[in-house]
Structures are given as C-alpha cells and as structure tokens.
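hey all, quick one before standup. I had two proteins in the batch that finished overnight and I want to keep them in one place so we stop losing track of which output belongs to which input. First protein below, input sequence then structure tokens straight from the run.
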Amino acid sequence: MCQCHQLPDVRDQKRTPQYAPLSTLQPRAKRGTAELRHEEAGMSRWRRWKRLILGALSSIVIGCSGSSATTTDHAAKMASMSVMPDAVHSAAAVTQEAYQFAVANPELLKGIPCYCGCGGMGHTSNYSCYVQRVSSSGTPVFDTHAIGCSICVDITLDAMRLSKQGKSLPEIKAYVHDTYARFGPSNM
C-alpha cells in the first residue's frame, strides 16, 4: 500500500482558524513605533531571503531543465525575403515566415494537403497555396492565395514547427489531417 493511503483523513478533522480573531488584535496606533519598525524590518528581511532562495532555486531548475531536453530542435530552411513579391512584403510577419518556409521546403509541403477548399482553384498541396510553378530559370512564380488565407498559413507553420522537432512527413501529414480536416476537403 502506498503512503498516501496511510495518511489520516483530514476531512474529518475540525478546522482551526489560521489567524487570530480581529477582536484580539490591537490596532496599529496602540502599538509602539519601535515595535512596529522592528516587526516590519523582520518581515521585509524574511521576504528578501525568501525571494533570494526562490530565485536561486528557480535558476537551478531552469538551468538543469535546459540540459536534458527530450525534443531535438532542427533548424528550418528559410528562403530570403528578397525573392518574395511585394504582396508578401506587406503581409503579416507570420505570413512572410510561411512563404519563406514554403519556398525553401517544397519537398515537404508538396506532401501535405491543404484544407481551406482551395482544391477548386487547382491547388494540389499546401505548397501550391504559395507557389504556382517554378520557372525554367529556377525562380518561383508565386500564388498570392495564402496571403489572405489563415488556414494555409497555419498548416505551413505547423509543418515548420513539427519538422523542426524532427517529425517525419507521414507524422506531419497525420497531424495536419487530424487538426484541419474539419475545415474543408483535402486538396490531395
């Protein structure tokens, strides 16, 4: 039997107040100023020690937890903003980040569906929400659909986060399906 089952049941015990009733306390004005100063100095000293000890303990805990991380954080490939069209430059920062990731990671995003309903536009993956095609010179021809579609951007950011954690394409695809299939049909 574990120790928690051997402890007495505290619900049946009579509760006693933690503080003295107000009628037994003296008003501050009746106490001497020297007594008050000594009491307040002691409390502030205790509070300072308590803060110092708690700060030191939290630093130790934070420092130790960083060394034993269980997830591996891989660096994500990101395209330069210099190759992005003007519409992406004026978009929100998360959208810019999604475009940068999409351009730099076509092999990943071509394997992930989008659930915003863009299949009717000819999109065949989450990648095609960002890039229509790649020209013969190797430069992407952009699709601006994702600039105004938070589902496309959210799927891409989730794929980026999961790939940084070392997840495989099938794992990322399953996560995206479980999370976004309720919003619309898959374009794959």
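OK second protein, same deal, sequence then tokens:
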Amino acid sequence: MSVPQRLLSFVLACASSAIMACAQSQTMPSPEVNKLAVIVGNFTIEEKLKAGFMGPNSPAMKFSGTDDCRWTADGFSVVCETVLYRPGRKYSDTSFVYYELTSKTYRHHAIDGSGGTEDKSDLNT
C-alpha cells in the first residue's frame, strides 16, 4: 500500500470513528431525561377533594383511578395513560413528557377524552 493510500485509509478510519462516537452519544438519553424515571410505572390513584376545590359551591368528592406511565421513543420520553373515576363521570387522558435539549426544559403535552389539550414547559421533576 502506498503512502497516499495509507494516509487516506487512516483519515477514513478516524472519520468513521468520530461519526460513530457522535451517533452513539446522541442515542443515549441525557441525565435530565433519566430523571423522568420517577414517573414510570403503574400507579393507583385515590384522592378526596374538599368542598370548594373545583370552584365556589362545589361539593367534596372522592375519585380513584390508574396511571400507567412507560418509556417510549427508545427511552427519550414517557407516555402516560390516566383513567380517573368520580361519581357520575369517567375522565381519561394521554400525556407525553420529555426533556428538550435545545431549550433545556421539560415539556408536557396531553389530550383528554373530551378533546381538551394541555401544553406545559419547564416542569419541576
């Protein structure tokens, strides 16, 4: 192998190593993403709301339900499906929580069973 061929082989080997290292670093969730692990799991919800909590003259009420949160997008975000039951009503929503590297904020998007949506950023974890 001539000197120019060896030099070219060396340069290509270095370039491919750098590309692979960059690609691998982007496929690993950051420590900020890993903080979302606290919301992953299946949870049973049981709550009591005091009278007036939902607005003036609203009665006290109990509700119960489940929250099922799991990793998605290869460990870069969490999807939660929530179902709550209170007297006379069932409430459900699906939410998506992730860490946005460019703005360095946690983001939350949700849609409920009536079509209502919610978008939040810079959540506390």
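Flagging for whoever picks this up: The radius of gyration is 24 Å. Residues 14-25 have pLDDT under 50 and may be disordered.
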